Amino acid sequence: MPDTRSKKNYKVLIVDDSIQTLEVIQRNLNANGYDAYTCSSVRDAVRFLMESTIDIVITDFKMPKQNGLELIRHIRDNFYDIEIIMITGYPDIEDAVQAIKDGADDYLVKPFTDDELLLAVQRMVEKLNNRRFVESTAKPAKTYGIIGESAKMKHVFHRIEKASGTNATVLISGDSGTGKEIVARAIHYNSERRRKPFVPVNCTAIPDTLLESELFGHVKGAFTGARDKRDGFFQIADGGTIFLDEIGDASLNMQGKLLRVLQNKEIRPVGSPQIQHVNTRIVAATHKDLPGLVGKGLFREDLFYRLNVIDIVVPALNERSDDILSLINYFAHKFSNEMNCRLPVFSDNVINALKRYSWPGNVRELENLIQRLVVMLDGHQVKTTDLPESMRFNISIRQAGKQKLNDVVADHVLNILTITKGNKTQAAKIMGIDRKTLNSKLKKIENKSQDY
Ligand SMILES: Nc1ncnc2c1ncn2[C@@H]1O[C@H](COP(=O)(O)OP(=O)(O)O)[C@@H](O)[C@H]1O
Ligand SMILES: [Mg+2]
User: Fold this and answer.
1) What is the pLDDT of residues 44-64, one digit of tens each?
2) Ligand having the closest approach to the CA of 204
3) Is residue 366's pLDDT more than 90?
4) What's the CA-to-centroid distance between 374 and ligand 2, angstroms?
5) 172 CA: nearest ligand 1 atom
6) Above 50 in pLDDT, residue 340?
7) Cα separation of 295 and 324, whole Å?
8) Is 143 in the pocket of ligand 1 (CB under 6 A)?
9) Ligand closest to the CA atom of residue 245
10) Can you give the three-state secondary structure of 333-379, one letter per residue?
11) Which residues, other chains included, contact 219 with Cβ-Cβ below 8 Å and sequence gap of 6+?
């Protein structure tokens, strides 16, 4: 989560009737970069809050006259963007429970150490950041309607900008569902060709027998059944952009024909003696590793270089978890508007689970999930239990009651490996062990040895 403000700017108000407590906490917070203010009664605090903008309130529970609970209720009724920590003595733990019900965000039991206090405040800062970040990204960004603030997506936007200003051929690569097609559309609609057609063609879907007439059209009587003259995709996209999706699936026959168009800017409709000049820009996309296919002789090297003039790599969703929150928000707004449903609220647990999930289907999978959640929403909050099982990370925790410790460890190790897509170095880092230990655990898991 980007911490857009330095700690220095977080304003904390401490409310306690003991001057000594106020001083101790204030000193601790100031020393750690927070702006800390103090009030010694609920009445003072209410007045102070009217005049200043406070991010976090730390309040004692037991105070003469009005108690902390009343301050919490006052804040919840009048302010939206303040986090509250309540301080309570051990015998009054039930009051803490009531305080949380009334809107406190956390509580500290006396006596607490400086570090415990700082940790609690830090958690509140993270919560505030989370919420403010979601709100700041609730509207679609001006980046061609493509959502994303991660460094990797910024790089993609930069490439789109560059590609839009030229007529050069573009090759977009990335896993399925990462947004290759919307990147292609963004290039077209941001270019001077925007008033002419954008024509998507799925290379997988064209049978070889129809290939030439689909791409280049045909004249009347060119073949049996060709009763009228018909334009092909290249003529339809004349002046505009043809989007060759799944170019990695193009047959060698098709590759040869495409290469000729790229070299000569000319096409010949089936059955026509005449060559036609076309001004069609080519943008291609693939989820396959084209250089790999070139190596195996399945993709023409000359075509690859012709296509790959400007290359854009769209990162997988699990490489840009910074974008997940804004995507969730964007789709939630989109679908609740479109389907006239209530806008769901996502609990912190749900957001964390979604951030941890590996998203093999990328943005398309996330989009489908949010749509389903919006439609199925019961009440207004999405809970972890509303998520598909595969997303409720750490399966081992759910079953822990019935599992042997060894199995829990094995589940955990395998879960983490799934998340890192088998990357052991990364997995070991997440689990705080070294690669050697991980390897030895894996060996024991494989052999079902009794002791991992
Ligand atoms: N960054 C994004 N912001 C908003 N919507 C996105 C984004 N990336 C993908 N989508 C949506 O996800 C779905 C899949 O995107 P698409 O471009 O078809 O992926 P691909 O062509 O890579 O398989 C589409 O509905 C698209 O609108
Ligand atoms: Mg696609």
Assistant:
1) 999 888 777 799 999 999 898
2) 2
3) yes
4) 24
5) 22
6) yes
7) 35
8) no
9) 2
10) HHHHHHCCCCCCEECHHHHHHHHHCCCCCHHHHHHHHHHHHHHHCCC
11) 226, 229, 269, 270, 271, 272
Q: Is 181 in the pocket of ligand 1 (CB under 6 A)?
A: yes
CA–centroid distance, 178 to ligand 1, in Å, is: 6
Determine contact, residues 78/48, Cβ cutoff 8 Å: no
227: which residues sit within 8 A by CB, 6+ positions away?
220, 221
Q: Count the residues in the chain.
A: 452
Ligand 1 centre distance from Cα of residue 179 (Å): 3
pLDDT, position 394? 46
Dist CA 378 CA 299 (whole Å): 50
Index of the ligand 1 atom closest to the CA of residue 323: 1
**pLDDT above 50 (res 3):** no
Which residue's alpha carbon is at the smallest distance from atom 20 of ligand 1? Answer: 177
- How far, in Å, is the centroid of ligand 1 from the Cα of 410? 35
Residue 315: CB within 6 Å of ligand 1?
no
Q: Is 449 a residue whose pLDDT tops 60?
A: no
Q: Whose CA is nearest to atom 23 of ligand 1?
A: 177
Check residue 396 and give its pLDDT.
35
From the CA of 245, give the closest atom in ligand 1.
Answer: 21
Domains along the chain? Answer: 9-136 (3.40.50.2300), 151-313 (3.40.50.300), 318-391 (1.10.8.60), 395-446 (1.10.10)
207 Cβ partners below 8 Å, 6+ apart? Answer: none
Predicted local distance difference test score (pLDDT) of residue 2? 40
d(CA 326, CA 148): 7
Return the pLDDT at 296.
95
What does each C-alpha distance from 154 to 75, 151, 159, 320 come to in angstroms? Answer: 39, 5, 9, 11
Q: How far is the CA of 7 from the centre of ligand 2 (A)?
A: 43
Q: Which two tokens stand for residue 423?
A: 């990357």
d(CA 436, CA 439): 5
